[in-house]
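My main concern about presentation is that the manuscript never shows what a single data entry looks like. Each protein is reduced to its one-letter sequence and a matching series of backbone shape codes. For the editor and my fellow referees, an illustration may be useful. For illustration, here is how one protein appears when written out as sequence plus structure tokens:
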Amino acid sequence: MDDGRSPVGTASLATAAQIPGTAALNRGGKAQVSSLSCVSAGNCSAGGFYVDRSGKQQALVASQVNGKWSTAIEVPGTAVNNLLGSAQISSVSCASAGNCSAGGSYSRGQKAFVVSQVSGKWGTAIQVPGLSNYPDAAINTVSCASAGKCSAGGSYYDINTAGQAFVVSQG
């Protein structure tokens, strides 16, 4: 029976739109948002990846302020370590507008990295301390309680090729 009501959650759903700047970055024809975090309506950050003109997958981030999306950018500091071309953001968490952290991995033996946004500006990604000797490390989730107070979790393979879980905290 059709009662004329819209399904839950679709009555005010806006039309999907491309994140500004992804077309210029995404010369390889494949881009994706993997994670999104919003602290209020119109104040969000997103992370994922795109494929560049050389066919390498690069990590990207973009932020929305007062309902307007910024131009997507390659995560600063990831390209130099992304030798095999499979960088990506897998998780984003924001504590307040313009104060977020994100994590993912890039290919130099698949290393886990984290990056923070402070007052709307994304910093340079760093490899997760303590994992440099372990291959196939990746961040799977990030959670921020307040600006500069975030934790991340993921996995890596130890010297016996057994999968291990890890957590790392900021602040």
